[in-house]
Amino acid sequence: MSNTYKSAGVDKEEGYQTVEKIKKAVSETHNENVLNGIGSFGAFYQIAGYKNPVLVSGTDGVGTKLKIAIDTQKFDTIGIDCFAMCANDILCHGAKPLFFLDYLACGKLDSDVAAEIVLGITKACKDNECALIGGETAEMPGMYKPGDYDVAGFCVGIVEKDQIIDGSKIQKGQKIIALPSSGFHSNGFSLVRKVFPDFNEVFEGKPLYETLLVPTRLYYQSIFKLLKEVELKGIAHITGGGLIENVPRIIPNGLCAEIDTSKIRIPAIMLECEQRGNIARMEMFGTFNMGVGMVVVVDADDAEKVLTLLDDAYEIGEITEGNEKINLK
Fold first, then answer.
1. Where do the PurM-like N-terminal domain residues begin and end (predicted)?
2. What pTM value is reported for the model?
3. Are strands 202-203 and 175-180 parallel, antiparallel or unpaired?
4. Rg (alpha carbons) of the chain, rounded to whole number
5. Tell me: the pLDDT tens digits for 152-171?
């Protein structure tokens, strides 16, 4: 009997089925700027309507949150996480997401699972008015065990050069506003899984995995609602490293983000993680978002307008003079 690619562990037919299951949903994310569909070697996206455009790109993955999805066979939210981790990053510079590409690797391809993941990405793309224009599904027996998956993505956005937000306009006296997270998002799950080894235990009346798999919040609608009305001086996406590592990335030298931790609305699941894992509070703030998925810095005169425009936003601190860039008190 002669060897075939299928006998080596790669089923091309399953790949074709995956494409059929996602083709319609992917095409629905396209707009007039997408010049070709699935099947080309490269994806084409034309840029129009900008005077001095700057492309802003970001790439990321879902991390070990995927382990929970794999163990519970619940894949409908993972694609949203993949998109959000990339798109939320480029939002920090005032960039509108234009297009997204995904990469999915596995040991043995299941077209139903792959389609469920990609359909999550298309849902997120629609929410962000972004086109899913390409992707790669890699079946890699011997590298991944059957049933294992990894998902990553790449997002490109656009902003006028004179409208780039980079923190350079941050000054003493400006206010720091928190935009709540939807949970752990996609960071810190190696510690989360150590503290909560049983994903099926009941937490707040439902299986724990349902809380852990709540997808990363998409901030595009909120940020662009603010940008129409308010000048945002700085935006930070609170990902791995929490407030402690991410806020300083936008703070100019000689200034400090003074944050009052007593004002932060920490989710119950994170308090449970802290208590059950015997984790120090500062370790929590240096690992998880602690309920703050994004922060924006605005002039004091604009703070009330931000709180009015976004009814779930709230003030957590202000910019002061100092060399440490962040001070949690």
1. 53-159
2. 0.94
3. unpaired
4. 21
5. 999 999 999 999 999 999 99
Q: Is the pLDDT of residue 252 over 80?
A: yes
Q: What is the mean pLDDT of residues 162-183?
A: 97
108-111 contacts, C-beta under 8 A, 24 or more apart: 108/9, 108/11, 108/139, 108/141, 108/146, 108/147, 109/11, 109/14, 109/15, 109/18, 109/137, 109/139, 110/14, 111/14, 111/15, 111/17, 111/18, 111/21
The CB density around residue 36, as the number of other CB atoms within 10 Å, is: 14
Question: What's the CA gap between 123 and 104, in Å, rounded?
Answer: 17
CA distance 187 to 234: 22
Average pLDDT value for residue range 53-63 = 97
Contact 184, 269 (CB under 8 A): yes
The pairing of strands 292-298 and 234-237 is: antiparallel
User: How confident is the model at residue 39, as a pLDDT?
Assistant: 67
Question: Is the per-residue pLDDT at 140 higher than 80?
Answer: yes
Q: What span, in angstroms and rounded, lies between the C-alpha atoms of 8 and 140?
A: 10
Q: What are 156's two structure tokens?
A: 């490109």
Structural domains of the chain sorted by starting position, each given as residue range(s) with its CATH number in brackets: 5-160 (3.30.1330.10), 174-328 (3.90.650.10)
Distance, CA of 28 to CA of 121 (rounded, Å): 12
CA distance 146 to 133: 28
CA distance 298 to 317: 11
Question: Which structure tokens are listed for 308?
Answer: 């009015």
Amino acid identity of residue 25, one-letter, is A
98-123 tens-digit pLDDT: 999 999 999 999 999 999 999 999 99
In single-letter form, the type of residue at position 162 comes to D
User: Which residue do the tokens 């810095």 mark?
Assistant: 297
